[in-house]
């Protein structure tokens, strides 16, 4: 669970964090991790709690926009090549299949087509 009191956050920031947390939970992220990620996102985008008594440091609109863009790019980059839990082999990309074959130490995978990778992975798990 994230540290510290959330009293200095606006109602809008609290709603945003809750929405982000729900989104992570829907994707299968554990509850405490989802909450931590949600508050980290709110802090990065808005510079933390905005009510009186905070540190007084404000994040400029330009830096918030840059942070959102870089965050989105990193999210896409981490999603690529990583099979999602419970995903069927047929729904995976060739890159995802190649990574899975590498993890299962299937020899000859680098020269295999997507169909050959599917067959090899099915054979390895049987």
UniProtKB/TrEMBL annotation:
Q: Which SUPFAM superfamilies match?
A: Rho N-terminal domain-like
Q: Which Gene3D superfamilies match?
A: 1.10.720.10
List the source organism: Pseudomonas sediminis
Q: Where is the composition biased (Gly residues)?
A: 46-56
Q: Which residues form the Rho termination factor-like N-terminal domain?
A: 89-125
**Protein name per the record:** Rho termination factor N-terminal domain-containing protein
Region annotated Disordered sits at 1-126
Q: Where is the composition biased (Basic and acidic residues)?
A: 1-10, 18-30, 91-117
Pfam families according to UniProt: Rho_N (PF07498)
């Amino acid at each position: 669970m994230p540290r510290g009191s959330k009293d200095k956050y606006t109602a809008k920031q609290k709603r945003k964090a809750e929405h982000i947390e729900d989104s992570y939970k829907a994707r299968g992220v554990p509850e405490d991790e989802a909450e931590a990620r949600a508050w980290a996102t709110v802090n990065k985008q808005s510079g933390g709690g905005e009510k009186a008594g905070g540190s007084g440091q404000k994040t400029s609109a330009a830096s918030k926009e840059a942070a959102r863009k870089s965050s989105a790019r990193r999210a896409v980059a981490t999603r690529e090549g990583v099979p999602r839990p419970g995903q069927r082999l047929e729904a995976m990309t060739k890159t995802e299949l190649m990574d899975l074959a590498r993890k299962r130490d299937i020899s000859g995978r680098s020269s295999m087509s997507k169909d050959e990778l599917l067959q090899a992975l099915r054979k390895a798990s049987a």
